[in-house]
Amino acid sequence: MKxxxxxxxxxxxxxxxxxxxxxxxxxxxxxxxxxxxxxxDFLDHSEEHMKKAASLSTExxxxxxxxxxxxxxxxxxxxxxxxxxxxxxFEQHVKTARETRGLEMIPEWYEIPVFYFSNHLAIKxxxxxxxxxxxxxxLDYELEIACIIGKEGRNIPMxxxxxxxFGYCILNDWSARDLQRKEMKVGLGPAKGKxxxxxxxxxxxxxxxxxxxxxxxxxxxxxxxxxxxxxLSEGNLKDIFYSFGEMIAQASKGVTLYxxxxxxxxxxxxxxxxxxxxxxxxxxxxxxxxxLEIEQLGVLKNxxxxxxxxx
Length: 311
Hints:
Blueprint: E1 2-7, E2 13-18, E3 23-26, H1 27-30, H2 39-44, H3 46-58, E4 66-68, E5 73-75, E6 83-87, H4 91-100, E7 115-117, E8 123-124, E9 129-132, E10 139-140, E11 143-149, E12 153-154, E13 165-172, E14 175-176, H5 177-184, E15 198-206, E16 214-215, E17 218-219, E18 222-227, E19 230-236, H6 244-251, E20 256-257, E21 261-264, H7 273-276, E22 289-294, E23 298-306
Parallel strand pairs: 6-21, 8-15, 9-23
Antiparallel strand pairs: 1-2, 1-5, 1-15, 2-3, 3-4, 6-7, 10-14, 11-13, 11-21, 12-20, 13-15, 16-17, 18-19, 18-22, 22-23
């Protein structure tokens, strides 16, 4: 199933899932109020709610709560997640990003998957504008995939971690490289270089849909990024070094994970301008449109606007 959050014509916000490529079922309306009108509350009791959602999806002749996708404005499928941890799980990206800063690969990276916390209150959705920070001249995209936690757990074993995943979505970890470069010299971060915006969407695909595509530590899913229609980045999720199971095990050590938390994969190899270099493409500017595409997960589009014009 593909879960979405959307705005209706009259302005109300609700959530549900795609019936097909052209229609959405509002889960609150279709269930007569049994299911909540937002995905965060749905995830709090995801196993129970999924049973009801499955029964609604298989009913025939149902008309209540069905809307044409063209009538709706899609938002981030999980507009305010409970937290956002972003990992650093693709070896090619780590190596190349360090080389651009004149740094060698460090052996500790191969010992544990590492992450940072980003701003879970700055989540954007499909077709929303991304404001380039006023002080930023080196704006970059990052092509990633995220998993959504659907079950509470603590000290989760790696081989049981899949039980705690609700689904997956595309993630763009926007980066102000000039701000990030300066602050990380201090030994902390990234912080201001990242916390202005992260976009996810256009929907969350439940994990069962990807099961047949498992390969290596990930899935055989092509990952692409385009700027103004030009293909810049191309990779595959099967090349990931640390699995989501390993990431979840690390994140949950001595800590409880809750439904509605997001865990990002980090950038796939070639998945940002920092890796590609200025000879391939300049830094992003106002007016640019960035499209991230991951097989089975859809296309996530955002346009850049100038922060100097936004109060």
